[in-house]
Amino acid sequence: MSGPVLPDTGVRIIHVDELKAALERAAEMGARKALEGVGLHDAEAGKDVRDLRELLDAWRSARSTVWRTILKVSTTAALVALGAGLAVKLKIGG
Predict the structure, then answer these.
(1) Is 37 helix (H, G, I), strand (E, B) or coil?
(2) What is the DSSP letter of 38?
(3) Residue 45 region, left (φ>0) first, then alpha (ψ -120 to 50), else beta?
(4) Are 49 and 59 in contact (CB under 8 A)?
(5) Coil, helix or strand for 30?
């Protein structure tokens, strides 16, 4: 279904539908190659992506918990130090 060849150039004129089909095939081949390159080309790919998302969510949650814990421990330590300093200053407890 290819069209005529332009003289002196060797360029073949093709119909827009033929070009679209060729581009679609090329895009699909490129996507398959890219997925294969990162190991997501088999039937387990969807499960792998879901597992990675769950792992990332767990990491974010753990990171958030660590920062909250550090903040609580720091605040508690500062208040204990302030209380101890105040007790020494007021000569309380000993």
Answers:
(1) helix
(2) T
(3) alpha
(4) no
(5) helix
**Domain boundaries in the chain?**
1-41, 44-94
For 20-79, what is each residue's pLDDT tens digit?
999 999 999 999 999 999 988 898 999 999 999 999 999 999 999 999 999 999 999 999
Q: Give pTM, 2 decimals.
A: 0.52
Cα separation of 56 and 64, whole Å?
Answer: 12
Helix (H) or strand (E) holding 73: helix 45-89
12: DSSP letter: B
DSSP-derived secondary structure letter, 5 = B
Q: Per-residue pLDDT for 1 more than 70? A: no
Residues whose CB is less than 8 angstroms from the CB of residue 32 and which lie 6 or more positions away in sequence, other chains included: 41
Rounded distance between C-alpha atoms, residue 4 and residue 82, angstroms: 90
